[in-house]
Amino acid sequence: MSVSRRSFLSASAAALALPVARSRHPGGKAVESSRRGPTKVRTGADRASFDPWLEVDEAALAHNAGEVARIGGSRPILAVVKNNAYGLGIETAGPVLDDVPEIVGCAVVKAEAAIALRDAGFRKPILVMGLVEDRDAIELVEREIQLAPFHDEAADQLRRLAQRFQRPIPVHLYLDTGMSRLGVPFRRALPWIRGIAEGGHAHIEGTFMGFTEEDDFDPVQLARFFEVVEAGRGEGIRLGRLHAASSHSLFHRLDALLDMVRPGLVLYGAYPAGARDLGRANLRPAFRLRARVVRVERLAPGDSVSYGRNYVAENPTWIATLPVGHADGYPRTAVNGCEVLIGGAVYPVIGAVSASHTIVELGVERRVEVGDVATLIGPDHEAVHPNTISGRAGVSVYDVLMHLSAALPRARLPS
């Protein structure tokens, strides 16, 4: 018996306890985060659980979109929600982004993500920036999800789809100008574009590329992109909206804003490398990684902490344990200078970040109690800002977000 992708996804998500239908924020009010059934999943915010959780701030997402629109010259925003909405949860962030007027659509890289986004209630256009086989393409077109062809057989696939649906298939053409990851190589792009346009099986709504984000090479890429575009237009081919600008480009490549911008990271409140210092945008982290303190103890001189005994107390010292670790997405290397916010004060991470636990040093006084809420990543203090975590832990800021576990319960904080 065959199983449809939609049925498979629904069953898999339920089995894995991924983003839930209803969750609670600290005020206790239930908030909708999916169209799935009435299953209730408790989060640490309920005070009945000591499991870690993630809070997604609707107001911050909307604020960041407004900042992107401002620095992008009011250009339309195609929001990138790949990799589980940069860790925030595609079924949590998607419906919020759907209500932001500056955002005209979302882009993903996998067919499953596009369908999950549509199932979550996202009504605007969705673009899949990846290769899809015919079976998947049929379901995507049925769900009014757009394709981004780049392979040699794209014209034939679009012809089959157009015949099946009795209409042209909306697409964004994907050009490779030097990234060498996806896209039709620019050197042979024109005849490929011509083959798609001549068939009348596709409606070209956009044409796009991706940068290597290397300062000396990006201008070369953009010149290659324009060369192909101008040649196509010279033959009377309409290529739709041009887009190339990622989050990085919004700060570092203003000549690449084109007709539409395609940011991901900045919408969630973190800055690409070097961008924060430019002061062009005031972004707000749109999430908090939180947990409740599960243990408070006083170390005697000579007592050690966690694996490897990397921390040994020289004096009597209070410590607190948090039930969140690298399996939840908190960096292992947070012990290299990261701090955790508890009750308005920050405390250094010590010992080792294990799979499920993080330990912080409180000092000579017991200033924290079991049950107190700790924020490991979020907007409430500079020490826990995603870019600060990135710098102190020595990891990419993209990893700080994208490595957040999909199994974390997520709570939407209404604006």
Provide an overview of this structure.
- It is a single chain.
- The chain has helices at 5-16, 58-71, 82-86, 90-98, 111-119, 134-142, 154-165, 189-199, 218-234, 247-252, 386-393, 397-402, and strands at 22-24, 30-32, 53-57, 77-80, 103-108, 126-128, 145-147, 169-176, 184-185, 202-208, 241-245, 260-261, 287-292, 295-299, 304-305, 311-312, 317-322, 339-342, 345-350, 358-363, 373-377, 410-413.
- Helix 9 (218-234) links the parallel strand 10 and strand 11 (241-245).
- The protein has 12 helices and 22 strands.
- Helices cover 28% and strands 23% of the residues.
- The protein is of the alpha/beta class.
- Mean pLDDT is 90; it is low at 1-44.
- The protein has a 9-stranded mixed sheet with strand order 14-17-20-19-18-21-13-3-22.
- It starts with a helix and ends with a strand.
Extract low-pLDDT stretches: 1-44
Report the mean per-residue pLDDT as an integer: 90
**Helix content range:** 25-40%
Question: Per DSSP, what share of the residues sits in E-state strands of 2 or more residues?
Answer: 15-25%
Q: Main sheet, how many strands, which sense, barrel?
A: 9 strands, mixed
Number of strands: 22
How much is the radius of gyration in Å? 24 Å
Shape: elongated
